[in-house]
Amino acid sequence: MSDAVSVGRTRWVLWSSLLLLVVPLAGCDRDSYLKLFGYDRAKLLRMTVSEKDETLARNYIENVRQRR
Length: 68
Fold this sequence. Notes:
Blueprint: H1 2-22, H2 30-35, H3 41-48, H4 51-65
């Protein structure tokens, strides 16, 4: 059992180290992190937010701008 834990722990350390080495290559911007996976912020937003929620948010922002 000890060998299985050490192998799992070793793999975890290797993957974590690899991630720490690869992430800075994307840059400091949040958009750059998403581009590693083939997304940008707009595409990810459209995939996760419904059209009804987007309309509600736009109306809310417009009301805040007009101070209603």
